[in-house]
Amino acid sequence: GAGVSQSPRYKVAKRGQDVALRCDPISGHVSLFWYQQALGQGPEFLTYFQNEAQLDKSGLPSDRFFAERPEGSVSTLKIQRTQQEDSAVYLCASSLVSGDGNTIYFGEGSWLTVV
Amino acid sequence: DQQVKQNSPSLSVQEGRISILNCDYTNSMFDYFLWYKKYPAEGPTFLISISSIKDKNEDGRFTVFLNKSAKHLSLHIVPSQPGDSAVYFCAASVSQGGKLIFGQGTELSVKP
Questions:
Q1: Which end of chain A is flanked by fewer CB atoms within 10 Å, N or C?
Q2: Which residues contact A82 (CB under 8 A, 6 or more apart)?
Q3: Which residues in chain B are closer than 8 Å to A67, comparing Cβ atoms?
């Protein structure tokens, strides 16, 4: 497809379960971002990749959160031992050049519910 | 510490009138500002941006105003249309290449 693709769109996890969320950025896009959006809030920055390099992971809330982009294309956000406060929409975004705000494209998000 | 604030969670406007959405920020290092529009179950879509060297940027029905001394920006939509009904987020970054800090969003409802 032409846009940023995220999977799964919806995930229900039992507390303590590990989850993996996948992001397929737009082909050729150098920069990739992960954001977390809680209900009624704006998106909050988690981490940023330029190609395969993770340049900023200051927004990851705990060491249970881990992101990778091994070949500089597809990225995976992994959450270990999920907790109820992890319930949120996880948004992936990509841009052609290094974070140019004009050209950041968001995916539709992965909706995670931890029960 | 909310660096970008949208103090109005919702706004209702009549079709054809002007919609004004407001945003305040606290970090004086921000020098690039954007507005995103979000429909339910979709990701945010870029609408319009402004850099700190300008005080106004216009694109069709959408105009963004920046008041650096007041650390305030606003989005004007004229005329408003029912299809504009969505949640609007303002966002800021320290540089055009930097990570975005978002406000909480304002839900705009344009009534026919």
A1: N
A2: A13, A14, A15, A16, A17, A18, A19, A64, A112, A114
A3: none
